[in-house]
Amino acid sequence: MSELGLRTRGGRLAVVAGLALLMLTTQAQAQDTKKDAPNPVGGATWNAKVNPEASAANPGTATASLALDAKQTELVVKVSAYFNELHNLKGVFVQTGADNKRMRGRFYVKRPGRLRFEYAPPSKQLIVSDGQMLSIQDLDINTDDRIALDQTPFRILLRKDVDLLRDARILEVQEAEDIAIVTLQDKSPDAPGRIKLFMSKTPRLELKEWVTTDAQGLDTRLEVSGLVTSEEIDLALFKIVSPAFLNLQKNQ
């Protein structure tokens, strides 16, 4: 049975999660195993894992787009429209790494470009994008690693005008009665990475899960729920503040 068939059997989406909209592979390698959390937003070390041997030799290798038929093209256009209509989004997430370790938390997205992932205790990890830079922080050890948002594969979903047909290589499109799956890769060589989106279709199109693959071929799954799109989100949430300053404020 195909992956789509397995996930839709019984008329429901078997959501296995990965946003917490995030730790970079380079950061994980530099810190001890306690900090080995994968990054569901992605970074410059990510690649599209289509041919494992080719990917290992050249993580930035681009993958050819799928030749879409009219129905698949229509679905990709609908997914683009969904993200274009998401001006404010918040909810909860469950992130599952390649080691099956689960982390939970809350996330906030304000397009264009802004996101925040707050990991629940005992984790002290925080990921924030102000629209330009993505900051990956660990408040426990005062680390603050930053990367340009444009170097992450999620930039094409957070930009002001989302157009996946224009900006992404579409690698997979599957559709059933209650689920749609779209796998994509940014066309920009500066933002390598592969994202697999799982969208529920009933009662309306809505993001349920995504899966990303790092440079070692390890998957990070992220399930989102409790989504709210009708409330304005304070811009102050997306301000990048150094962990040392945040800890100083807490101790005062």
In a nutshell, what does this entry contain?
With 252 residues, the chain is α+β, with helices and mostly antiparallel strands. It has a single domain (15-251), classed as outer membrane lipoprotein receptor (LolB), chain A (Clam), CATH 2.50.20. It has helices spanning 3-8, 25-30, 52-57, 70-84, 155-158, 164-167, 243-251; strands spanning 88-96, 102-110, 114-119, 125-130, 133-138, 143-148, 168-175, 179-186, 194-200, 206-213, 219-228.
Q: Could you please describe the fold and organization of this structure?
A:
- The protein starts with a helix and ends with a helix.
- The protein has 252 residues and is α+β, with helices and mostly antiparallel strands.
- An 11-stranded antiparallel β-sheet has the order 6-5-4-3-2-1-11-10-9-8-7.
Write the layout of secondary structure elements.
Layout: H1 3-8, H2 25-30, H3 52-57, H4 70-84, E1 88-96, E2 102-110, E3 114-119, E4 125-130, E5 133-138, E6 143-148, H5 155-158, H6 164-167, E7 168-175, E8 179-186, E9 194-200, E10 206-213, E11 219-228, H7 243-251
Antiparallel strand pairs: 1-2, 1-11, 2-3, 3-4, 4-5, 5-6, 7-8, 8-9, 9-10, 10-11
List its salient traits.
252 residues; alpha+beta; outer membrane lipoprotein receptor (LolB), chain A; eleven-stranded antiparallel β-sheet; 7 helices; 11 strands; 33% strand; globular; disordered N terminus
